[in-house]
What we know:
By secondary structure, the chain is α/β, with parallel strands linked by helices. The protein is 37% helix and 21% strand. It has helices at residues 12-28, 44-52, 65-76, 97-100, 125-138, 160-172, 181-189; strands spanning 2-3, 9-10, 34-37, 57-59, 111-117, 144-149, 151-152, 179-180, 193-201, 205-212. α2 (44-52) links the parallel β3 and β4. The longest helix is centred in the first third of the chain and has 17 residues, at 12-28.
Amino acid sequence: MSKTDDERQYAPATQRNREPILEILRRVLPAKGTVLEVGSGTGEHAIFLAPRLKPRQWLPSDPNPQMRASIAAWSAGEAADNLYPPLDIDVHTPVWSVEKDAPVDWETSPLNAIVSINLIHIAPWSACLGLIAGASRLLPPGGILYLYGPFKRNGQHTAASNAAFDASLQASNPDWGVRDLEHVVAITQDQHLVLHQIYPMPANNLSVVFHHS
């Protein structure tokens, strides 16, 4: 990740994966309503996806103030009237800020999808647990939880590059790492989230879609 001359942060992977992610989101998201992005990072996905997914409303969030400043800086240069200012959401908290003070009128644009791109492997396992619990609380029946990133399958890496990436993550922080998809699915079942579809993505990543039952 690098920094521009202002507060915008830059993540090179965004340029490579944003079009494939957009293609899947167009398939799986409800036709309208609000999409909450959890762990928006630099904000580059938000400013790319929001205007292309109208009439849906896009609500970015990140617990890191530096990342929220980056999201705001990127948003300032975009004319996306369906992109909201970033929220401070820490998935570890038992009640997210959006549950107490939402900037969106849920009556006119209900929250019916949560998107999380490249979060659960660059965070402790507790973040995955918190994300799933929050999705269970917030999503209505039929709501969508979308996860994107690398995953192990049955405890095994799907590519040598993912194994190397996993090793580098754990060298940075032993609590980080590529998650086993079956472990993630197991905890979603306890939270009334049902695996709907797995889409293979470029660079040995997956798009994983759950429906709230």
